[in-house]
Amino acid sequence: MNKKINWGIIGLGKIAHKFASDLLLSNNANLYAVASRSIDKAKEFAQTYKASRTYSSYMELAKDPTVDIVYIATPHPFHFENTMLCLQNNKAVLCEKPMGMDAKQVELMIQEAQSRKLFLMEGLWTRFIPATEKLLEIINSGKIGDIEFVRADFGFIGDLNLKSRLYDKKLGGGSLLDIGIYPIYLSLLLLGIPDRIKAIASMTETNVDSSCSILFNYKNGAIANLDSTIEHNTATEAFIYGTKGVIRLHQRFHHTNKLTVSINGNQEVLDIPYKGIGYSHEIEEANKCLQNGKTESSKHSLKNSLDLISVIDLVKEQIGLSYK
């Protein structure tokens, strides 16, 4: 597939606008179709981002033979059904994080994609941000030695309206799935699956977590201290402590454009810009995979997505968070 990739977008909320603006920056992609349950919303979105087709149902977009891949930008609880709809209509899928509400959903999505030999990837943009690539390069070079401690937080003051999406259990509300996923992902990326997990949380009147604190322990002695909250504006930075040095991922660490590497009292500040808003890099990864006939990304594999949601399931169990 050497032609431009024709993209469709399902769900036209805030994140879809950001994604579409970056899609316009790609030389390898074309925003072909968008779908919303409101045709007026779809038409307005299409006009803003120059999409060729608009649909008032997700099924219509999924059945459009010209669409190569669909970006799923609906709220968390709808990722499974929307992704399965697209896969079952033989469309490749980039699904916004978290890919599913639990490991069982993600397993079924992976099985469906693999049985049809279709590309599927979780839209975890952090992995593809240039500063993350540089972080891995520095760590793999041995420059800071073996990792002993990871510290990462993500916090902001959410809309205090308990009826908003952030607090709505039916819409997958709470800090863990929305932003806690990023500190957890960073630890898994650098240290792998932990041997022990300890988690505590503050719960809202709507029975979702407003704050969550997690400790990961590893057999080699490494520890990860991870926090998320929708009650406070926190530093939203990450620190990677090695036996030889430290790397700081500046605010906001999940799509940072600055790293500080400290070794023996000497600091090196690296400015590493990303393209557009930052979604460009996951878009290009998906484009490249499709053009090369790949069914998953080697940078953020389907196993990586399953490992991530499996760990999140264990955290949910410890803090008493259930979406069923």
Report on the structure:
The protein has 324 residues and is α/β, with parallel strands linked by helices. The chain has two domains: 5-124, NAD(P)-binding Rossmann-like Domain (Rossmann fold, 3-Layer(aba) Sandwich); 130-273, Dihydrodipicolinate Reductase, domain 2 (2-Layer Sandwich). It is 34% helix and 26% strand. The chain is built from nine helices and 14 strands. The chain has helices at residues 14-23, 39-49, 58-63, 79-88, 103-116, 130-140, 175-191, 280-291, 302-319, and strands at 5-10, 29-35, 53-55, 69-72, 92-96, 120-123, 147-155, 196-203, 209-217, 223-229, 238-242, 246-249, 258-263, 266-271. The strands form two sheets. An eight-stranded mixed beta sheet has the order 8-9-10-7-11-12-13-14, covered by helices on one side. A hairpin with an 8-residue loop joins strand 12 and strand 13. It is globular and about 55 Å long. It starts with a strand and ends in a 5-residue tail after the last helix. The relative contact order is 0.16. The model has no long low-confidence stretch (mean pLDDT 97).
The percentage of residues in β strands lies in: 25-35%
Q: Overall 3D geometry?
A: globular
Averaging pLDDT over every residue, what do you get? 97
Strand ordering within the main sheet: 8-9-10-7-11-12-13-14
Low-confidence stretches: none
CATH fold field value of the largest domain: Dihydrodipicolinate Reductase, domain 2
The description of the largest β-sheet is:
8 strands, mixed
Structural class: alpha/beta
Can you identify the CATH superfamily of the largest domain? Dihydrodipicolinate Reductase, domain 2
Instruction: Report the count of strand segments.
Output: 14
Oligomer: single chain
Query: What is the number of helical segments per DSSP (H or I, 4+ residues)?
Result: 9
Named at the architecture level, the CATH assignment of the largest domain is 2-Layer Sandwich
How far from one another are the termini? 41 Å
Rg from Cα: 20 Å
Q: Write down the domain tally.
A: 2
Order of helices and strands: EHEHEHEHEHEHEHEEEEEEEHH
By CATH reckoning, the class of the largest domain would read Alpha Beta
Helix content: 25-40%
